[in-house]
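User: Small ask, check this?
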Amino acid sequence: MDLQGDLINHPHDAYGHLRDTAPVQRIAGPTGEPAWLVTRYDDVRSALADPRLSLDKTNAAEGSYRGLALPPALDANLLNMDPPDHTRMRKLVSRAFTPRRVDALRAPIRRTADGLLDVLGTEGRTDLIAAYAAPLPITVICDLLGIPDGHRTDFRAWTNELIAPDPSRPQAAKHAIGAMLAFFTELIAHKRRHPADDLLSDLIEVRDSDGDRLSEDELTSLAFLILGAGYENTVQLIGNAVHALLSHPEHLARLRTDPSKLPEAVEELARYEGPALLAIRRFPTEDVAIGDVTIPAGETVLLSLSAANRDPARFSHPELLDVDRDASGHLALGHGIHYCLGAPLARAEVEIALAALLERFSSLTLAEPAPRWRPSLRARGLLELPVEYKAAARPRA
């Protein structure tokens, strides 16, 4: 049995089998080293909030974890930090994602969505990832950070190399990391010369006026994380949500009939097909019991958000999509102090993206070839989503 291959190619079936038979299981992790995989909802939720499970890689046992090698200027980010550093850095950016700030972004997000759909015209065929799900969030997050049009680039090519590296191109990830570091270094230098009313200018001001609150590496890493995570996770949320609805036309029709259901539907769609199969790896600072297994300090722990969200002990008939379900408590965006910082913005983007699609197109169906999923142990997202569409007839004036 090729467990890692099954987890990549048939994740829901493979995770479900492990959840039923070995809910805390030793596997080969994304980079080949041994790791403990946790799959039950209660175990995953508890572990996500357990302060003994550290994100700081210095707590990994010697030789037990290789991971992705990032330079310090990209590695000093929230995904590698515990309190108090995590608390300090998160506080610096959390105000950008308050409900009030996100509400102020809803109208610009809708204008961006409508503009992308205008380009598609009234009828045709397209890859909805390339034409819609990818450009919408990159526009939103670049506007939030204040990245000028001339400095925007194709992050999807870089993130693909990092999330699902091609074994036949071993240098591609290294080149992507170098390109990202050069991009953010140049971007921060540009924003220092041309500050504006945006999040990145605010962070630069904090760094330059009070270096004790934010180091230069932390500044660069924050920009990298906000842009990369804010973009990539939302691309996958939008793409996965559209694919799920097109695969379940009865639910698509339900939302057309009652668009007020969209906020609840977004929660169910995130539960059903979230953007991450696994949470960021953790390292116990002491021996920790999860289920019936005691995991030694320093070993790598992988928490399966996907398996937890389809645990029948928490959600009735979890393998079924049900836009009328109360999906509150799902873990698609994490839990505890490391809960996704940009979750309010991501929810708004998905809701608005779906609303704009449903209003614009009276007919939206899957097309050939079949959608392709990214081959990754970590992420759950589509590389392509071919669709055919036809615009709704506009009422006469």
Summary: Residues 3-391 form a domain with the Cytochrome p450 fold (CATH 1.10.630.10). Residues 229 and 342 are 9 Å apart (CA to CA). The chain has a mean pLDDT of 91. The chain is about 50% helix and 10% strand.
